[in-house]
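User: I'm putting together notes for a lab meeting next week and I want to include a structural view of one of the chains we've been expressing. I don't have a solved structure, so I'd like a prediction I can at least talk through. The sequence is below, exactly as it appears in our construct file.
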Amino acid sequence: MSFSQQTSMKKLDLKDQILGYVKYWHLFAITLTLSLLAAYVYLQFTTPEYKVSSTLLIQNDAQGEGLLKGTAFSDLNMFRNSKTTDNEMEVLRSKDLIYQVLNDLDLGTRYLQKSGWKSKELYGDSLVVKVDVLSVKNGAYVKKLSLQVLNGNKILLKENKKRFIYRFGQIISRPEFKIAIRKGPAFKLTNKTIEVSFINLRNAAEAYSVSKLTVMPVIKDANTIVLSLMDAVPQRGVDILDRLIETYNLRNVSNKNIMALNTIKFIDSKLNYLSKDLSGVEQDVEDYKKNNRVTELSSNAQMDLQSSGTYDEQLASSKVQLRLVQSMISYLTDAESNFELVPTTMGLKDPTLQNLTDKYNNLQIERQRLLRTNQAENPLVMNISEQLTGLKANLLENLKVIAKGLRLEENNLSGKSAHFEARLRSVPVLEKGLQERTREQSVKTTLYHYLLQKREETELSLSATIPTSQVIDRPAATSVPAKPKVQLVYLLGMLFGLSLPVALLYVRSKLNDKVRDIYDLDHLIGNTRVLGELSHKGIGESIVVHKDKSTTISELFRFIRSNLNFMDTGKNNRVMLVTSSTKGEGKTFFSINLGITLSLIEKKVVMLEFDLRKPDMLQHMNMKTGAGLSEYLQSERVTINDILMPAPGSANLFVIGCGKIPENPGELLMSDRLEELFRELRTRFDYIIVDTSPVGRVADAFSLAQFADASIYVVRYNFTNKNDLGIFEEICENKRLINPMLVFNDARKENRNVYRYGRYAYSA
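Assistant: Thanks for the context. Below is the predicted structure for the 764-residue chain, given as structure tokens.
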């Protein structure tokens, strides 16, 4: 297995990522503490809100007969009114209904009293004082009043930094409002200030209708609905829902009563007319008997008269129905009844007429409900008005058809009655006259009794009207606040405190364009071998490898020496070219200490200072500058022995300096003497280390690449720019350097926790 395969790097795993963040634990501790503190302060300043809810059963009566079905008055169709759950949910959300509830509960004034860090709202039995609003204008809604009890008779009013003293019950007049202040249920002498503000109930009703009041079915298509709202004062929320349900039921009952009262009014008018007519007929019978002394009829005449009377009764009933139809036609054609309920069609058995009458009355009620909160020009009102006009026309048309049928029936009955009258001509005139009067009296009496019975039934139905909704669960508030949720607030604070430093560190890492760790080079590793990694060294410390001293970094150099032997299976890596992307990445430092490390195993090593532009190898080794490579390449008289210098402290290490810095280093490196230099050095030394210029700035290293057996590219953590790695990638792709290998320099604890080789681990 090749060393490249052994040292191939993997993606940064989860454990390494976590360890990368754990070292900043103090930052996490600070942000977590501050976040939890912010959550605590938020909870202290936030007024808790409680959820108040109630469950209501709506009678979903699409046919309008659910209320009366199975009762003694099931034959009365006049009170049928179709209802659906969806429609009733919208009624419960209506702004007009909610406004009436808020107004009835006198919620136009708000009271706040400072309690600790936050203000406590006073309501109901907790009110120290009560403000009675006599009148209020729009300007009052932005006013802030402060009240303070002075004694049992007087109170201090603060308004716009002005102070006024009033007696309890005294009327206080301003251009924007007129109020009177009285003692509340919880009145006591206190020095606490009570903040008072006025609330626009119209705006409040709209807010409840749009969002604050939730009305929804328990499950889809169910008749059971849940009403809920959030309120900082639980009792106020309970009172609002209680009054809302009560007002809703009262309105439903009121709508039914309007229809019933209208019908009673119509029946009373008919009874009054029949009563007068019946009195006249009864008086006529009495006078006829007195004047003609009539007692009883013969049996034969009785039978004929009975048959004739049957048809006459039917004829009279038909005439009565015809008069009822004509009365309804007159009622509908009267301009004053355009938007009034149509009286019941009792006595008329036509189902179409009954259905049209029910629809007409339902639309009238819906129009009257909309007019409570809307103008007559509202599109919804106008649409219903148009429907009413169409239905009215249909009613008139239907009544005309019924009238035509009744006339035909009357003609038929008249013919049959005439037949029996002809048979009775032989009956004494007195008997005939008596029977005619008695028959008319019987017909009118029957009709009178029928109308009187229906009136009594209508009055009984009126008194027996019950609400169309049933409360399943009375309004009640939760025992713990629904908002804010303490556990959720602390959880969010904890998550924020942990995620903020993660985000900051992540953004910082993404904005950092320097090589931070070995994983930044994972896209190069597949084609490149890693020779080793060096830890951070002290400032000004150039030589870190010593014969009788072991340190972390010196052991890392020995590890690199082992890797060189392991990778050099053919023993051909004798000439090693050392370069980097830019100045300051540590290639000279690496060259010096690698040379010392190799010399410690009794190998003859020579180091060449081939950075002809800014040489600093001899300076780092505290050696004097003399003749060097520039003189050797420029003059054939200069030999290797003239420029070869032994390194201090090592018998096997030699150095060839740059010499005098040349004016044309690029051309000098094209000298023919380079080949002679390396050929002779190969015969005299085991290893040749060539310290060259950075390839990211000049091309000197490429001129020397042909003489090297291996190329070592130094990358420095937190110094080498990631963009400069493209230079090394391009070198590898085009094979511009022979046998390239990477060395990572200046690794710190933030780059890696430990430096591993073999089965030893040295902490950085």
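A couple of points you could mention at the meeting. The mean pLDDT is 78. The first helix runs from residue 3 to 6.

User: Perfect, that's what I needed.
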